[in-house]
Amino acid sequence: MIRLSTEAPFAHGGNRLCFVDPGNQDRCIKVRRPEFTLADLRKKKGFPYTLLPLSAVDESRKEDKILRACERRLGDDLYAVVSRHYGFVDTDMGPGLCSELIRSADGRISLSVMEYVWEFGKTESLLKALDRFADLWPEMMVPSRDLLLHNVVAQCDADNEVERLVVIDGLGYSGMIPFSWLSSSYKIRRANKKLQKFRQLLDELLDVQKKGEMTNLFWKQKHDGKAHHEADNP
Asked: What are the residue ranges spanned by the domains of the chain?
C-alpha cells in the first residue's frame, strides 16, 4: 500500500487531491479528498445525480473507464495527447488513480497552458504545439468536457519551448445518450468545438496577460480548487 497521508499534494481540485507517487517521481496519484464522501458529492451535484448510484459521481472510476476504452481503440497513439494511464493503486487514502506525471526537460512538473502563457506569453512554440494538438485531437474522438487552460499542460524543452500539449484532466461526457452510440462525424464536430473554445480561452488569457492583471475568472480557475494538474469540471 502506498502511503500518501504524510505527503503534501502538489495540486488539488474540487473533489480530488494529486500526489507525486512516492515510489515513482514520474507518476501522479489522484485520490478523493478525505472531507468528501461520494454521497456528499452526489448531493452537491443535485438532480438528476441524486437518482443515480454513487458510482455515477466517482470521477476516478469514470476517468479510468474512459481511458481504458480509448486505449483499446487507439493504443499508444492516445498518449501523444493524453497523460499515460496506469489504473488504480492502493493507498492509505483509498483507491488512487495513477497516471503519468508530465515533466519538462528541466525535470519540473510541466506548467499548465494558463501558467505557461502567464510566464512566457504567446510564444511561437506554443502556437505550433497547439496546431499539432488540434490536428490529432478531433480524429481521436476522446470524450472530454471543455478543454480548460489548467487541464492542459505544456511540456517544454530545456529552452522553455513547448514540445507538446497534453490533456491531464477533464475527460468525460455527461450527455443522456452514451458517447459510444454517437456517430463519428458528431464526435469530431464536438471535439472541434471544444478546440475552438480552448483557443478563445487562450485569447482571453492573452488579453489579461497583456494588462498584467489576473481577472477573477482566471484567478478562480487557477486557485479556487482548480490547480493546473487537477480539476473536476462538470
From this structure: 11-75+84-100, 111-223
Residue 30 DSSP one-character state:
E
Please, what's the largest Cα pairwise distance for the chain? 51
Angle CA(104)–CA(224)–CA(117) in degrees, nearest 5?
40
Give the pairing type, strands 111-112 and 94-100: unpaired
Backbone angles phi, psi at 126, to 5 degrees: -65, -45
Beta bridge partners, 167, equal 82, 152
Residues 144-195 pLDDT 10s: 999 999 999 999 999 999 999 999 999 988 777 889 899 999 999 999 999 9
| Residue 21 near residue 29 (C-beta atoms within 8 A) | yes
pTM of this structure? 0.87
